[in-house]
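Structure in, sequence out. Go:
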């Protein structure tokens, strides 16, 4: 199966986890891992970028499923499907605040799992539209932008920004000290951020050319981060290096 949807399972009951993995594999999905703790979930998800995260709300250990999801959401917009046997309002409210794509209540049957994952996978295939952009997520001024972060608008000077990375319907703004995930596509950011130092170098990356450390044939480097450079953008990048 080409372009299989990649799924990470986070469940501390290994019998349940193995059962989910087997069912998903039989349905044609690629299970990239099974982890049992919140700390492992954060590391695995942010390193391997699954398409979907199936996450138990109540994990054993120091970090709950909701806390793991909150941490992952700070830098990556990975669709989350929660598994939960706890239906109290407090837990639901906390889980809802992480903006999951779906909930599956335990105990669940094969059809529950199949339909829920299929619906989320279909949403991924649809992808962002060209006009996707949240005007309340960021505001561009002459030498700075304001981005919504942890419920408030935070000022970022343009000179602080190293690069901006696409993350499906979101964009991840990278600075030396922190990352800021905004609910706006990279195309929309490119349209709004007209400062000549910020240029598109790849369908998934926009860089601050004043921060470049290395320019190679097919990639760039900023602060030890290797960023791919598409052939279609190469001439444009080299031309704008003279404007730094």
């Amino acid at each position: 199966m080409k372009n299989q949807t990649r799924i990470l399972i986070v469940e501390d009951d290994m019998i349940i986890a193995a059962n989910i993995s087997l069912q998903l594999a039989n349905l044609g999905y690629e299970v990239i891992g099974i982890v049992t703790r919140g700390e492992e979930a954060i590391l695995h998800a942010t390193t391997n970028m699954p398409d979907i995260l199936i996450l138990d709300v109540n994990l054993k250990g120091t970090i709950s499923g909701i806390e793991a999801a909150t941490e992952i959401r700070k830098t990556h917009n990975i669709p989350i499907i929660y598994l939960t046997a706890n239906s109290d309002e407090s837990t639901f409210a906390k889980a809802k605040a992480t903006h999951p794509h779906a909930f599956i209540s335990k105990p669940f049957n094969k059809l529950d799992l199949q339909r829920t994952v299929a619906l989320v996978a279909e949403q991924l295939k649809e992808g962002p539209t060209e006009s996707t952009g949240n005007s309340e997520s960021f505001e561009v001024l002459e030498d700075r932008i304001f981005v919504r972060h942890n419920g408030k608008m935070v000022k970022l000077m343009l000179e602080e920004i190293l690069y901006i990375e696409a993350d499906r319907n979101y964009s991840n703004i990278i600075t030396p000290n922190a990352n800021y995930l905004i609910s706006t596509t990279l195309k929309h950011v490119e349209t709004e951020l007209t400062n000549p130092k910020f240029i598109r170098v790849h369908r998934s990356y926009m860089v601050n050319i004043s921060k470049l450390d290395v320019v190679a044939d097919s990639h760039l480097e900023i602060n030890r981060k290797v960023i791919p450079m598409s052939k279609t953008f190469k001439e444009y990048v080299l031309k704008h290096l003279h404007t730094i």
